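Sorry to interrupt, but I need a hand with the structure work. It will help me judge whether the discrete encoding reads sensibly. Write everything out right here, beneath this request:
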Amino acid sequence: MHSTFSRRHLLKLGALAGVALSPAGLFAVEPFKRTGPSRLQLSLAAYSFREYFKDVSHDRKLKTDESKHIDLFQFIDYCAEQRCPAAELTSYYFPKETDDAFLLKLRRHCFVHGIAISGGSVGNTFTNPPGDKRDEQVRYVKQWVDHYAVLGAPHIRVFAGTAPRGVSKADATKHCISALEECADYAGKRGIFLGIENHGGIVAEPDDLLEIIRTVKSPWVGINLDSANFHTDEPYRDFEKCAPYAVNVQLKADMRPRDGKSQRADLPRLVKILRAANYQGYVALEYESEEDPWKAVPGLLKQMAELFSK
């Protein structure tokens, strides 16, 4: 009686979490089952102003007007000025020697300005075979899990990567799943989701991304769904296929189908797809178009806010 109850109880918990329990007791990611109506919460990705932040991950010199250079605190100020309720804080723009004192100062600044931290993002690769390179990437992601936990961020965007030279795509995928599961186990203990982004490499096609998502064993993994990163024949269809697995969404102003020119994104259509999938969570504007972000971002934020309120 007790064992039957326990198994049923675990299966119920798995269903509520959007995961399925295998006979071995491991979780496999399923489409998230969300009660209530779709709710889209606006955020702005710091990466939108990448030409104005000092990118400590590359230590590059900015070519833009120095009077417009900003740090993370000024970015939060900007979000407040634009009445954007949340911010996605990209790891590239933190100090090289980031410590808890800095993170707590930033967290306080966000709270005082009424800005929620919707999540963070790191620049990793999970396709390396077992060895030093693989271990280094796993340590890197875990380090940022610790940092974002101090900030109170609920989600981190991660990459899959490309297959290294001499490694087949199938093996690279297995390596990715293994590294993702290890990092997700670490992140889950801190209450943080890892969202693997559709970002080229071994996840350039939606079916390859979904294969990883459906195979990985973790209740703390989903898709960081980027509207512009499917350079496929039907990017809107592929966006729709992945929407039920999304734990974070990034919308861009433009899209580029396979063998096609960049074209303005149909934001109402993308929002309609998210609502049909009953997505509930953050949708961050990640601006990458050619026009000056200082001019373009305010209008896009306003448009997104109006679409989300309908």
